[in-house]
Amino acid sequence: MDTLLLLKALLLGFLEGATEFLPISSTGHLIIAADLLNFTGERAKTFEIVIQLGAVLAIVFHYRHKVVQVVGGLGSDPAAQRFVTNLAIAFLPAAIIGLLLHKYIKEYLFSPLTVAAALVVGGFVILLIEHFKPRARVAHVDDMCWRDALKVGLAQSFALFPGVSRSGATIMGGLVSGLSRPAATEFSFFLSIPTMFAATGYDLFKNLHLLKSEDLLLFAAGFGAAFLAGLVAVKALLAFVSRHDFRVFAYYRIILGALVLIYFWP
User: Fold this and answer.
1) How far apart are CA 185 and CA 172, in angstroms?
2) What are phi and psi of 21, to 5 degrees?
3) Calpha distance 168→47 (Å, rounded)
4) pLDDT over 90 percentage in the chain
5) Nearest one of 230, 193, 249, 225 to 19, comparing CA atoms
6) Do the Cβ atoms of 159 and 94 come closer than 8 Å?
7) What is the pLDDT of residues 26-67, one digit of tens each?
8) What is the pLDDT at residue 210?
9) Domain count of the chain?
10) Do the Cβ atoms of 130 and 176 come closer than 8 Å?
C-alpha cells in the first residue's frame, strides 16, 4: 500500500467525520480536499461512500442507548412510535427528490465552484435565520409533532445541492420550525441515520463493481478515521450549541467559500 495514498485516506476520513454533522458541508469539504489532493475518479467516489458510512455509525454508537430504547418500545411505547414516525416523515421528502434527481446532481453539480457558491449562500442564510428565527417552543425531540418533522424534512431536501450541508439544512429548518438549538441539533443527528444509510446503501449498491480487495486497507483507514472524528464532532457540537448560536459557522462558510471561488475560478 502506498504510504502517501494511505495518508490521504486518513485525512479525508477525518475530514468527513469532523464535518458531517457540522453545518459547514462535509460533501463540500470532501470535493475541495479531494481535488487538492488529486484523489478523484470512480475509486475515490466509492471511498467517499465508505467513509460516510463510518460517520453515520458514529451517530448510532453515540446514541446507542436511545436507539435500543426506541427499537424496543416500538410495539408498545407511544413516545417511541411517535419518534420513529417523525423520522419517517422527515426522511421522505429528500428521499423522493433524491431518487428522482440523483443522476443529475451527481453528474452536473459536484464541482468546487458550485460547492463554494453554496457555502457562501448557506452562510448568509444561517445569519438571516439566526436573526429572524421564532422563539423556541419545542425543547426536546420527543416533544416534536409531525408538522415539525415535515418542515425539517423539507429543509433537508435543499441539502441535495452539494455544499448546502445536510446538517446545516436540517438544523436551520428546525430553528425556523420553532425547535430549540439542542432539539434541532439532536433531531438532525437522528435523521442522519436513515438518510445516510439510505444514501450510502444506494450508492454502494450501484458501485459494488468498483470494490476491490486491494483497496481494503485504504477504505478501512478512512472508515475508522471518519468514525472516530464523527464521535468527537458530535459531542463537541452538542456542547457548543448549549451555549452558542451558529453564526460562527456562517462566517466560516462565507470565508471558505470565497477563498475556494477565488482559487478555482477559471
Assistant:
1) 9
2) -105, 5
3) 23
4) 64
5) 230
6) yes
7) 877 887 888 888 887 777 878 888 898 999 999 999 999 999
8) 66
9) 1
10) no
3-class state of residue 266 by DSSP: coil
List, in order, residues 6 or more apart from 147 with CB less than 8 Å away: 177
Give Cβ neighbours of residue 252 (< 8 Å, ≥ 6 apart). Answer: 24, 123
The neighbouring-strand residues paired with 179 are: 138
d(Cα 252, Cα 79) in Å, to the nearest integer?
Answer: 38
Q: Residue 138: beta bridge partners? A: 179
C-beta of residue 16 within 8 angstroms of C-beta of residue 42:
no
Structural contact between residues 164 and 15, judged by C-beta atoms closer than 8 angstroms: no
The three cell numbers of residue 146 are 409531525
| DSSP SS3 for 178 | coil
Q: Are the CB atoms for 74 and 81 separated by under 8 Å? A: yes
Domain residues for 193?
3-264
Contact yes or no for 119/226 (Cβ under 8 A) = no
Contact 250, 22 (CB under 8 A): no
Grid coordinates given for 55: 460517520
